Fold Delta-5 delta-6 fatty acid.
Amino acid sequence: MGMDMETKESKKKVAAKPWTQIHGRVVDVKEFRHPGGNILDNFHGMDATTAFEAFHGHSKKATLMLNSLPTLPERPDMPPQPMEHVTAMTEMLASWRARGLYEPRPLASTSYALVVVAAIVSAVVFAPLAPVCCGLLLGTAWAHCGFLQHMGGHRELGKVSLVWQHFFEGLLKGGSASWWRNRHNKHHAKTNVLGEDGDLRTTPFFAWDTTLAKQVPDWSLRTQAFTFLPALGAYVFIFAFTVRKYAVVKQLWHEVALMLAHYAIFITGLFKVGCTLSQALTVYCTAYAFQGVYLGFFFGLSHFAVERLPSTATWLESSMIGTVDWAGSSAFAGYISGFLNVQIEHHMAPQMPMENLRQIRGDCKALAKKFNLPFREMSFVAAVKLMMYGLYKTGRDELALRKSYTAAAAAVLDKLHAD
């Protein structure tokens, strides 16, 4: 209920402020409809320069579109933000482009993709011999399809990016590329902002902060540190319904066709190699559940346990405060986690090829130091502890608070009864 109220309030603010500031110019966006979705709504009434540069720094078309929008007078009601953050990000993003760090890495990306495809084929071929093990292998490969489509969705591969994303997300994984972009771009635009970052919608099952904990029942708060990982395997089946509904409602028939082709390929493949119906269902369901655990675990390491941010946070603030690096210098950790281990750098430059992110770690640290912002880098073990203890502590503290309220209420009732 509290989240609904916050969302309604946010929509009221959007309606009241149909303008944004980009490159020092207040732009009238009252009649503008973003062709890629409603991401711009997240920046109504505030500066959106870095978001524009991060998402559209490569696009001449986007610049022309921006230049065509009407200019408004300066707005005194724009929330105060450290504009030196904006200037620093403009300079840094331009520096990275000049160094060629946004150029695609086709050899590295294709090699990674071929390994994943080979794992999928192997899991299907040997499925009749060991359905559960092959299901785990297939689930791991599907999780990496998620990482590969992530690259395409962020336009890391140049002109073939969206084709690449549809191949791995639609055909191989059975998902919707458009649904993912709509949700994930909002996550980057408003990282860890309650009511705006959809990845925080884990209630009523889990909560990492005191606000969301109010929406979680006692039984879940008691067990959430222990049930989180297994529940990811069940949660992904809910997402499956949401994704398919989105594609149908939005009439994305090309994506619906890819989903149907996905099922046709895997059903045909599993039965061609000799799987019984029971074995085929075991492989597919095991794989589907395990990909949810794999993806959710690595995403959670980089986000969930750190602070929530106000909607007015700058791009630099949200990147440094809302994300975590772990084993950031390790290429092995990068490929195992789909490069979610260098999450600070990815949020600073979301369209930079993942393989290049380690090259900008020094620059990101320097920016954090310059503006007195945190730069959280830790070991894999420390990141796991941060995430899991965050769940445990949040649940424990909220239960203790509820207990104190109950005791206080009981004391008042006793006093009234005595009087």
Remarks:
- The CA atoms of residues 115 and 141 lie 9 Å apart.
- Strands lie at 19-22, 25-28, 325-326, 377-378.
